[in-house]
Design goal:
This is Delta2-dienoyl-CoA-isomerase. InterPro entries: ClpP/crotonase-like_dom_sf (IPR029045), Ech1-like (IPR045002), Enoyl-CoA_hydra/iso (IPR001753), Enoyl-CoA_hydra_C (IPR014748). It comes from Mycena albidolilacea. By secondary structure, the protein is an alpha/beta fold. A six-stranded mixed sheet has the order 1-2-3-4-6-9, with helices on both faces. A three-stranded mixed sheet has the order 5-7-8. The chain has helices at about 35-50, 85-105, 105-110, 125-130, 160-165, 170-180, 185-190, 205-220, 220-235, 240-255, 260-270, and strands spanning about 10-20, 20-25, 60-65, 115-120, 120-125, 135-140, 145, 185, 195-200. The chain folds into two domains: about 10-220, 2-enoyl-CoA Hydratase, Chain A, domain 1, CATH 3.90.226.10; about 220-270, Lyase 2-enoyl-coa Hydratase, Chain  A, domain 2 (Orthogonal Bundle), CATH 1.10.12.
């Protein structure tokens, strides 16, 4: 059975282009505006893949629409909640809504496998929140980005302002972009440090490069890759000494893996190594 079986839904298509690689395509016409239903569906999908123990070793996230990645949040959806009877209760309701929203968009960090974003066209507002939570980001030539939130009277609150200071050393440019909401192109995003590379061509070109990377990663030890992801995330938020302690604790168990002798055996035999899934499937 395909790893993608029964994962596609109303606005999200999931396929398995290579063994152990999933391609998740978002397709809510006309502009991939994220309603509550869509961002809830998105976060639940990524969590489900991990919780079900599917043997996924890399995932590519892209838009199914030909002209853009996403226009951001669905503005029409913002006022759909029920008003609370007083400001204190309204504030508490808004707090819980934002925390749920942040949790959904932060789902790539909870995946035990790398998530690779392949973007094209426009990446507006929430689109930057989404890709900032991913492990690797590629963009097609001609892609344009904007941290749009200040233009609608708010500070970006779903991930951009939390991730970008960790992603980039160029705080001057980052703050300029966040304060002004001006458009910036893929080359400037690469200079910011948001992207690994700018890929020639449009949607098809950037998706192909991302899938090729995912195929390479999927051939590595899942114990090694998942451990690397977890240790890198810890290093981002802790001191060197704290991370070294964490790494020693982590690898005290992880070094017992059968993936090490299998890697050595395959290298000696000049074969592709065969690694067991990280977890037993719960399908």
């Amino acid at each position: 059975m395909s790893l993608a079986a029964n994962l596609s839904s109303k606005w999200i298509s999931v396929s398995e282009p290579f063994p152990h690689v999933l391609h998740v395509e978002i397709g809510r016409k006309p502009v991939n505006a994220f309603s509550v239903e869509l961002w809830t569906e998105y976060g639940a999908l990524l969590d489900r893949i991990t919780l079900e123990g599917r043997d996924v070793r890399a995932l590519v996230l892209s838009s199914a629409l030909p002209k853009l990645f996403t226009a951001g949040i669905d503005i029409a959806d913002l006022g759909s909640g029920h008003p609370a009877p007083d400001p204190a209760r309204q504030s508490l309701s808004t707090y819980h809504h934002l925390k749920t929203f942040q949790h959904a968009i932060g789902a790539p960090e909870r995946c035990h496998f790398p998530v690779i974003a392949a973007v094209h066209g426009l990446v507006v507002g929430l689109g930057i929140d989404i890709i900032s939570a991913c492990d690797v980001r590629y963009a097609a030539e001609g892609t344009q980005f904007t941290i749009k939130e200040v233009d609608v009277g708010l500070a970006a609150d779903i991930g951009t302002l939390a991730y970008l200071p960790k992603i980039t050393a160029n705080h001057s440019l980052m703050r300029e972009l966040a304060y002004t909401s001006r458009l910036f192109d893929a080359r400037e995003a690469e200079r910011l440090g948001l992207l690994s590379a700018v890929v020639p061509g449009g949607r098809e070109g950037v998706v192909r490069v991302a899938l090729d990377l995912a195929e390479v990663i999927a051939q590595k030890s899942p114990v090694a890759v998942s451990g690397t992801k977890r240790i890198l995330a810890h290093a981002r938020d802790h001191s060197v000494a704290e991370n070294l302690e964490y790494t020693a604790t982590w690898n005290a168990g992880a070094l017992q893996t059968n993936d090490i002798p299998e890697s050595l055996r395959a290298a000696k035999a000049r074969e592709t190594p065969r690694f067991a899934p990280l977890r037993g499937a719960k399908l």
